[in-house]
Specification:
Blueprint: E1 4-8, H1 18-32, E2 37-41, H2 47-52, E3 57-60, H3 68-77, E4 79-83, H4 111-115, E5 119-122, H5 125-135, E6 140-142, H6 150-159, E7 165-171, H7 180-190, E8 194-197, H8 202-209, E9 212-217, H9 227-234, E10 238-241, H10 258-279
Parallel strand pairs: 1-2, 1-3, 3-4, 4-5, 5-6, 7-8, 7-9, 9-10
Helix pairs in contact: 1-10, 6-10
């Protein structure tokens, strides 16, 4: 059986972000299915390494660290799938700055890299639609969700049962695209009670943000999904947002609590099956 090489700029042990947590669980699920999976930092990929592994399969997540030469080699010689997290087909990494999410041709990048992939996996329905609109390719699919480990899903299930206060939780993020200041300003103008939640361990963050009945999240850029919003729905919260939330484009976003948790448990099988069908 050929090896699967999972390429990313960083992994969860380096940065505990949503994309990294999703990638970590995908790797774990593939290993549980019996595949030999190697994690490889994009910046460490060399041409000799690619030549040595040209018969193996690659899953390419974030790839800012890949050299032009490595991308060209992969495109010409390797079997690979792109697990798209954040609009790396655009110079801006944000389609929402363009009318109808359609960028001018000169703003579209990496099209050849995307076109030669066996598949491009997007996080949500709107993510897929926007990627197809800009790349004009047919090999683009939606995995329609994310992956969580059982420990986190068990915690979210526990949090879905706790009594919540009639207040708004706001994600206190230093990342300007999460637009914390806009959400705070909205609550101030509307005289809505709120709590800023951030700078905690992952489990503590989930426990604290789910103290309230509502999440207010007004992202500045088009979110491909947004794990935090889905996690809040899994704890039974209402999510107040704008039109830039990828998760809100999914029919399942109307679910919450145990129903949504059960669906995300099923994603462990359905997303791995998509990888197997397209890549292997």
């Amino acid at each position: 059986m050929n090896k699967i090489i999972f390429v990313a700029d960083v992994f969860a042990e380096h940065h505990l972000g949503g994309g990294e947590l999703n990638n970590q669980e995908l790797i774990r699920q593939l290993i549980l299915k019996g595949y030999n999976v190697e994690s490889k930092l994009s910046a460490s990929i060399t041409l000799p390494y690619l030549e040595e592994n040209r018969k193996n399969h690659f899953i390419i997540a974030n790839f800012l660290g890949l050299s032009v030469e490595a991308i060209d080699f992969l495109r010409a010689n390797c079997s690979y799938l792109i697990y798209e997290h954040d609009h790396k087909y655009l110079t801006t990494r944000d389609p929402s700055v363009f009318d109808n999410y359609l960028a001018p041709d000169q703003e579209v990048i990496n099209r050849d890299f995307y076109s030669c992939a066996k598949g491009v996996f997007c996080q949500s329905k709107i993510h897929q639609e926007v990627a197809q609109k800009n790349l004009k390719l047919e090999n683009i699919y939606s995995v329609s969700g994310n992956l969580w480990d059982d420990k986190t899903l068990d915690l979210l299930e526990k949090l879905s049962h706790k009594e919540k206060k009639d207040r708004y939780s706001i994600w206190d993020s230093a990342n300007p695209i999460k637009n914390t200041s806009l959400a705070v300003g909205y609550c101030a103008r509307k005289n809505l009670p709120y709590d800023l939640v951030g700078h905690l361990s992952y489990d503590q963050f989930l426990e604290k943000i789910s103290d309230n009945k509502n999440l207010l999240f007004l992202p500045q850029t088009l979110e491909t999904l947004c794990r935090v919003a889905v996690e809040c729905r899994m704890t039974g919260m209402t999510v107040m947002t704008n039109k830039k939330l990828g998760a809100a484009s999914e029919d399942w976003f109307s679910l919450k609590g145990i129903e949504l948790i059960s669906l995300m448990r099923e994603k462990k099988n359905t997303i791995c099956k998509q990888v197997e069908e397209i890549l292997l």
